[in-house]
């Protein structure tokens, strides 16, 4: 029996360490939070709780388990509005000092002094996350206070903006005889490397073409020439709009009752009144392709690769889903594994064993992390001299999908994929809680606005899997790239 849950895709889930049902926590109203929902997952020895903050309607979830490596994650909806990378620069700058901790770099100071097993921050296309994990409860409360003060009351000094975003510096020429002005900055330099990487360039171009008119047209991390146009005033305004409790999801995980953590959360949340929730837009029906399109683009070359085998070709499909139903998301993830994972998969045999290309193209499979997901299959390393390569890839993908739709999958392969999923669920890695929290938090921010969040943790059988899965592939929305 396959656990049809988002946990299968967001993190490796383990079997319970101890037999028996986990006792329920006291869920009476505490510290300004009202209990909304409880979902027991006995197979994983977990219980998921949902609370809502009364004043701001901020949502807070706790996963009660017997793991002593407790995890915290707070995330904000931050869909990109342009290519200036405001969300990325802000992610760096909020960690450069706050109202309560006005030191130059409290984040790295805590890394040296803390007993944490994980500390970081990350920016996605739709969201910004701030997770940490530690086995020490006093350390957890200390880190929680540092993180919350950083995200809600950052100093956002202009000198920190120049350090993390962009600035102009005087550079001495190599011969020491002259000087010149150059641009510098942590995010600016980081994104120079990212956008020049061929796979990253290809992946973003594919998203931009498949999801026109959405925030995915923009590079959330920032496009270097546009990063230089970001102003300090725009950064401060972006923080004021997006970093509000009402626009957040908070998640904790571990073997401690969250009452003490709720008190700290309430101390920060109560300073705000109810605010607006930033919408993560989805692709409107009129924006989708209504016929197949063939698009060719030029991009940077891989300097380490064969210069005659730099071509990448993908066939991509829009996905038909009913209001981001979680069951559809899991169905498509399993379907993707059956189609393309491993040498015995039909698309691997059609695209790679046929030697059309050397590897799968970037963004292969089902992009479950997008608010408007799509599926994409293709190859890279295609010989420039190969005639009709585009038609070969298109025919290989379409004919394979049609054959599998007609004949189905070999039951031994279905059982193998299900078995692998179950093994994943039973594997507990050191970063299990972090992967679980960041995965569920990001999914909740960009995909699950209309779903009961605790249903993300619900487990369902898959006895009826595959009967109707094909209707998700919208052939009217396909385009070869």
UniProtKB/TrEMBL annotation:
UniProt cross-references to Gene3D superfamilies, sorted A to Z: Metalloenzyme, LuxS/M16 peptidase-like
Residue span(s) of domain Peptidase M16 C-terminal: 230-418
GO MF: metal ion binding; metalloendopeptidase activity
InterPro entries noted in UniProt: Metalloenz_LuxS/M16, Pept_M16_N, Pept_M16_Zn_BS, Peptidase_M16_C
Domain Peptidase M16 N-terminal: 72-171
UniProt keyword Protein biosynthesis present: no
PROSITE patterns per UniProt: INSULINASE
One example of a Gene Ontology biological process annotation: protein processing
Keywords (A to Z) from UniProt: Hydrolase, Metalloprotease, Protease
Top-level taxonomic group: Eukaryota
Keyword Ion transport listed: no
Family according to the record: Belongs to the peptidase M16 family.
Entry protein name: Putative pitrilysin-like metalloprotease
Organism: Trypanosoma cruzi
Native organism taxonomy: Eukaryota, Discoba, Euglenozoa, Kinetoplastea, Metakinetoplastina
